[in-house]
Predict the structure.
Amino acid sequence: MYTLYGDLGSGAFSAEAALAEAGAPYAFELVSLEKNEQKQPAFLAINPSGKMPALRLAEGEIVTESAAILLTIADHFPQARLLPPLGSPARAKAYRWLAFMAGEVYPIVEIVDYPERFAPPGCDVEGVRRIARDRIRERLLIVERMMAGETFLAGGFSILDIYAAMFSRWSLEPDWKEAHLPRLMALARSVSRRPAIGAVWKRHFQRK
Ligand SMILES: N[C@@H](CCC(=O)N[C@@H](CS)C(=O)NCC(=O)O)C(=O)O
């Protein structure tokens, strides 16, 4: 049994969708972003960086960092084919874009969500947020262009598509995304309709 720690609509979506695709048994432990529970001692004992998601493996080991969690789930359930074959060019492509989204996009989401963490006192916090949004636009456009002519990001469906679908939900205005990221938005729709993921998607992104 895996235990996934996180909130709805957060990075925990990617881990939960991968667990669901793999058919893994898991429990979801809610950590409320609204109540700032990720910065409370109980969660800091799980992830000292105070960020979600975190995954507890059956053996008790804690895995944090969304990309590491996705790779771990893909490793544990090879029959689910959540990554292209080992050693293939498509696998290298999957690593490339997973690292790009984890390293170049996700850190900027923190600046959009908490610009005050990055602005000296008296600084234009909304200006910091605006610039962070521009950087996310620029970087998601790189993913969008890379997808030219492709349905999925690395050959067949993989954890990468789950990850990209998640970033398509955050930070930017829906109209801008529909106009400028048509391939990513179509990818997100196809991820949301996967039989194993549909209910997870609704819980995270279609809450009333
Ligand atoms: N590098 C981390 C980033 C995780 C992250 O920023 N998670 C957000 C939720 S989507 C979070 O926990 N934010 C709370 C905070 O920064 O206080 C990862 O890839 O897992």
Q: What stands out?
A: The chain has two domains: 2-81+198-205, 89-192. The longest helix spans residues 89-113. The chain has a mean pLDDT of 97.
